[in-house]
Specification:
A hairpin with a 2-residue loop joins strand 2 and strand 3. The chain folds into 2 domains: 52 residues, no CATH class; 124 residues, Peptide Deformylase, CATH 3.90.45.10. By secondary structure, it is α+β, with helices and mostly antiparallel strands. The longest helix has 16 residues. It is built from 5 helices and 8 strands; from the N terminus they run ββββαααββααββ.
Length: 195
Amino acid sequence: MARCSSVLHLSHLGLRLCAPLSTHFPSNSHIFVANTYSTNIKVRSYFKYIKQKILSPPSPPFNHVCQVGDPVLRSRAVAVDPAAIKGPEVQKVINTMVKVMRKFECVGISAPQIGVPLRILALEYPQKMLAEHSSISRKVHGLTIQPLRIFVNPELRVLDWQTVLFQEACESISGFSATVPRYLSVEVSGTAFKF
């Protein structure tokens, strides 16, 4: 009867079968023992496994932009209670919005785009983005620097119904852009903050 004992080795790569500690085979045995590892077996990191089991998945507000198909983008955003605007929860949402907007170099972002179904909008058009356009393009499209503004419970009113076409992209439809008609002049109202 053959006897073989092995050790399981716990490392940052996961569980791994190590070389046999001792083997006792009869001299006439035709058993071949090789210390090889299969290259087609994916070894999961033990730390990744523990992290997945112990830590819960991320919760809103996310540090990424939700993509088309996410239910939060189709649900109706809820108005923010004016008394809660200065509270830590709403301020966390606003700070995350600004961080994500600047990370992805967006002109604007809404709270639902980071997974929070609240009526909050952040807008900014800094010098860096303006410099990417020629002076002719700036003049034709009326582009100017816009400081960071946060609108809570925004309302939109059209001032000039004439439309102009702009090539635009949306971070919630990553990798896609289209020519979009926009009103020449609008007014956005609501509780606004300049930073």
